[in-house]
Amino acid sequence: MSKFLALDLEAATSDFGNICEIGCAVFENGVEVWSYESLVCPIKKEWGKWQGWNLPYKLNDALRAPGFEQVWLEIMERAQGLPIVAHNAVQVERRHLLAAFDHIGKRGWGRDLEFVCSLEQARLAWPKLPKHGLKPLCRELNIDLDHHKALSDARACGEVMLRTGAPLI
Q1: Structural domain of residue 26, as residue ranges?
Q2: Are β-strands 19-28 and 31-39 bridged in parallel, bridged antiparallel, or unpaired?
């Protein structure tokens, strides 16, 4: 595995595509070489109860942030064509990204994105662990994590992926 983008998204509500924070890190040959984080102005100007309890910022903070398109363009300047590694990639991050692309009329941006799931790889690498969520994995593997802070989650996801030893295909 030579180079990939580890990604984590936080959402303002349970609606897919209503992203309020993006964190990502590019790993090359096992080393983080670039990282980025930004709050994102959510498409729906709402805040879910879970978000109020778990995120370290409030809706008003996110409403002052740049829009999804602007943030994604900054990421793609550095990460175009890289596989995207995310925890629960297909069920969560991929669905959020595709919905966000739809909201801004850029569905084509998601057409060539390749997703690799660190959750699935962790289950293969450590089948005897009782839990494979990001928080329990980080605790088990002694990886620093400030959970639900997108950049911290992305970095942890990248580190989990590296430790699985799985190749990116």
Answers
A1: 3-164
A2: antiparallel
Q: In whole angstroms, give the CA distance from residue 39 to residue 6.
A: 17
Structure-token pair, residue 76 = 């793609």
Number of domains within the chain: 1
Instruction: Compute the distance between CA of residue 125 and CA of residue 66 in angstroms, rounded to an integer.
Output: 38
Whether 100 is covered by a domain: the verdict is yes
CB-side neighbour CA atoms (13 Å) of 64: 4
Instruction: Write down the pTM of the prediction.
Output: 0.94
**Which amino acid, residue 121?**
Q
β-bridge pairing 19-28 and 3-11: antiparallel
Which of helix, strand or coil describes residue 117? strand
Whether residue 32 lies inside any domain: the answer is yes
How deeply is 40 buried, as exposed, middle or buried, from its count of CB atoms within 10 A (0-12, 13-18, 19+)? buried
Asked if the structure places residue 47 within a domain, the reply is yes
46-105 confidence digits (pLDDT tens):
999 999 999 999 999 999 999 999 999 999 999 999 999 999 998 999 999 999 999 999
Domain of 21, CATH number, reads 3.30.420.10
Residue 132 lies in a domain: yes
Q: Which residues touch 62 (CB under 8 Å, ≥6 apart)?
A: 12, 20, 21, 39, 40, 41, 42
